[in-house]
Amino acid sequence: MIRIIGAGGKPGHIPAELNTFWTLPNIITVIRFCGVPLFVAFVVQKDYAAAVITLVALGSTDWIDGYVARRFGQVSSVGKWLDPLADRTALIVVAVTFVVDGVAPPWLVWTIVIPDAILIVNALILFRGRLRLPVTNIGKIRTALLLVGSPLLLLQRVEGFDQTWLEITANVLLLLGCIGHIIAFYGYFIAAHRKYRLERAA
After folding, report:
1. Degrees (nearest 5) of the Cα angle 94, 97, 101?
2. Which of 99, 2, 101 is nearest to 45 (CA)?
3. Cα torsion for 166, 154, 84, 69, to the nearest 10°?
């Protein structure tokens, strides 16, 4: 899993960070972000097959933009905050859409939204919102589990795919993803306070 997450990077090599928005990975991220309202529209129209395909595309491009950035040396300062922002926004919107449509229980939303809200308030109080922390592996694994579990859960709404094993697999992946989300939240919260103490000491 770790090798998949870091795919594209050269061992021991830290690529130079570009100070521009116009990189291929950032464009892929923006296109992925534009797929979120498209997904919501498909669910509202009860076109679950198209919604599943859109979710799969969202999940796959989440890996592709990171791979391209590392493989072709296009890591940028914009991408470091744009990619996590797109991921968080997509997860929250997908979770809310699932709950509103009755696909998933309310705890899915609260497990994702409450930790994120705490982190935002924490960053505003300590850093006036200007907080950048590197994405951890547990955070990336969490995102992958949620982005894989979500289309599987929605797939049950597609005619011919209402299988019990799909429901069980999807719920297990989502549960593991939510647990990972809480663990990642704890790690980011601690890292933020550690950074704050170091800056105060300096």
Report:
1. 140
2. 101
3. 70
Give dist(CA 129, CA 124) in Å, integer: 4
Give, rounded to a whole angstrom, the gap between the first and last alpha carbons of the chain. Answer: 37
DSSP 16: P
Specify the fold of 16-201. Answer: Four Helix Bundle (Hemerythrin (Met), subunit A) (1.20.120)
34-93 residue pLDDT tens = 899 999 999 999 999 999 999 998 888 877 887 888 787 888 877 777 787 787 788 888
> The whole model's pTM is what?
0.77
Per the CB < 8 A criterion, the answer to whether 86 and 65 are in contact is: no
- CA dihedral sign of residues 177, 102, 91, 52: positive
Q: What sign has the CA pseudo-torsion 135, 88, 174, 66?
A: negative
Q: Which phi and psi angles does 78 have, rounded to 5°? A: -70, -45
Compute the half-sphere exposure of residue 77: CA atoms within 13 Å on the CB side of its CA: 4
Six token digits for residue 166: 């799909």
The burial class, CB within 10 Å (0-12 / 13-18 / 19+), for 145 is buried
Encoded amino acid at 32, one letter: R
Locate 64 and state its tokens.
Answer: 């592709």
DSSP 24-61: HHHHHHHHHHHHHHHHHHHHHTT-HHHHHHHHHHHHHH
Annotated domain spans of the chain: 16-201
